[in-house]
Design a protein that fits this description.
The protein is 10% helix and 32% strand. It is mainly β.
Length: 503
């Protein structure tokens, strides 16, 4: 089997600090590297190899990286990167304002002078406007906006659109170069595909037409100057080849169970971290509309606000915050906790069970289980006998994992004749007689199907009339102590689920 990377991590004793990484998929001495992490030798063959990483300050920051030939890394009083000095004398320097907003990046291809050094390349940051110095002349490189960016093209400007995935990664950039109102394959500027931890796929879709736009993973700046290969994610710098930060989390005291160097709790499919502070929680209303984001996001990544008045207040404050107006703010931890907290992985899995139920003709009992680490295990739609009741067979997982997992199963969508002679379909909001036994062990239980009962009548002549109006499809969310009398904590329609999972 061919591997891009096959990494072995070595940590300092009783510490979260990474000391060394060995890539067994590479051949160091032959200089063969398969991409991803390049495990270059730190000493000649036959000599003891020193450890890759050095942490030389009191804040736990990385201060040297021998694998990238970085001799020293310096930080300011805000714990932000100020300079990177390489063994060959090359350097990168950063300038910030008093609040920590990055203003300038300078690249030195030769050792910088001690007084008034002149950089070989300089980038200035003025909000959404990025300027570069080329040939001694400072000029606008591009400015970003909600739909992409605008870049200078001679005396005119090109409007470049971008497609972003649900995590905010820029996947496709394109422009209507000939202004004919449509875009074909020749007008695609750039395509990016990423592994979950942010490493970019190589070997295909790597054609760049025009500017190599350095803002991709999470919409953040990818720094590849002098072989750095880090991503500047606002508060910290991140190495996607290792899935680790280079300095500790500014909010580490709020997440004491986790390493301060981990990215997205080591689970980037389950969580996202937009600024290096903490994995982010997004807030939604019952219509599936995004109404806010939290300030530190340590409890999950989706909170659904069922109280309409509360949802309106959060949305109003968030809109003012996005526009930079007074009185606006991100959602507080209390706002997050006032809603139903779950994840997009769980909601995607619920949507998947509902779609499989539709595809199989509306029959029960499709099912899935979402484990604590975000792994989704799908059922096969088969039945098992539980006394006199035939129920869906959940996928098997270890018993000790049930209390931290989410169960999802489908109720039938079609109206049928009941034992008492009525025409009725199952209601996802009402647990079935066997549901408490089957699902009480799980942390969270979700039933998908019709949010209401689809009814009909049996006419005197024995013919059946089904009501034309059908209750909407969706999901009902229950806690862990589910009984036949349990009421859902909230319900979401299929359309609301699709909105949330697409954002």
């Amino acid at each position: 089997m061919d591997y891009v990377d096959k990494l072995v991590y070595e940590y300092a004793p009783k510490s979260n600090q990474l000391l060394d990484v060995v890539d067994t998929a590479d051949n160091q001495q032959a200089g063969v590297y398969n991409g991803g992490y390049s495990d270059t030798p730190n000493a000649p063959a036959g000599q003891t190899q020193p450890k890759d990483f050095v942490y030389g300050d009191y804040n736990g920051n990385l201060t040297a990286d021998r694998n990238k030939d970085i001799a020293s890394i310096n930080y300011n009083h805000l714990n932000l990167l100020t300079s990177i000095n390489f063994e060959n004398g090359q350097a990168i320097r950063y300038t910030y304002d008093a609040t920590g907003v990055k203003l300038k990046k300078e690249i030195f291809l030769t050792p910088p002078a001690s007084v008034n050094p002149v950089a070989d390349a300089t980038t200035y940051y003025a909000g959404n406007y990025i300027y570069e110095v080329n040939g001694g002349t400072e000029q606008l490189a591009f400015f970003s906006h909600e739909e992409g960016y605008v870049e200078q093209n001679g005396s005119s400007f090109d409007y470049v659109y971008q497609y972003k995935d649900h995590l905010g990664n820029v996947r496709l950039s394109y422009a209507d170069n000939n202004h004919d109102g449509s875009v074909n394959s020749t007008e695609i500027r750039e395509e990016n595909n990423y592994y979950p931890f942010g490493l970019q796929h190589k070997g295909y879709n790597n054609v760049v037409n025009g500017r190599d736009h350095k803002y991709g993973f999470g919409g953040k700046e990818e720094q590849d100057e002098l072989g750095l290969e880090w991503i500047d994610i606002t508060a910290r710098n991140y190495d996607p080849a290792l899935g680790r930060w280079m300095n500790i989390d500014p909010l580490a005291e709020q997440m004491r169970r986790h390493s301060p160097y981990n990215y997205a709790f080591d689970n980037p499919i389950y969580f996202m971290d937009p600024d290096g502070m903490a994995p982010q929680t997004e807030l939604f209303n019952l219509k599936g509309e995004k109404i806010g984001e939290d300030a530190n996001g340590i409890d999950g990544n989706v909170s659904i606000i069922g109280d309409s008045k509360k949802a309106k207040a959060i949305r109003k404050s968030y809109k003012r915050y996005k526009k930079g107006k007074s009185g606006g703010s991100l959602a507080s931890q209390a706002d997050v906790e006032s809603g139903y907290q779950t994840t997009k992985v769980v909601l995607n899995a619920a949507l998947g069970v509902l779609k499989r139920t539709i595809d199989n003709g509306g029959n029960p009992e499709e099912s899935s289980i979402v484990k604590a680490d975000g792994t989704v295990v799908d059922g096969d739609g088969s039945y098992q006998q539980n006394g006199d009741v035939a129920e869906g067979k959940l996928p098997a997982i270890p018993l000790d994992e049930k209390s931290s997992s989410t169960s999802i199963h489908g109720h039938g969508l079609n109206a049928t004749i009941t034992d008492d002679g009525f025409i009725s379909s199952n209601d996802a909001r009402v647990p079935g007689p066997s549901d408490p036994t089957a699902f009480s062990e799980y942390k969270e239980n979700i039933i998908v199907g019709r949010l209401g009962t689809h009814t009909g009548t049996i006419d005197p002549d024995g013919s059946i009339t089904i009501d034309e109006k059908k209750p909407p499809l969706g999901a009902a969310f229950f806690g862990n102590n589910i009984t036949v009398k349990s009421k859902p904590i909230l319900t979401l329609t299929k359309e609301a689920l699709e909105k949330i999972t697409k954002i």
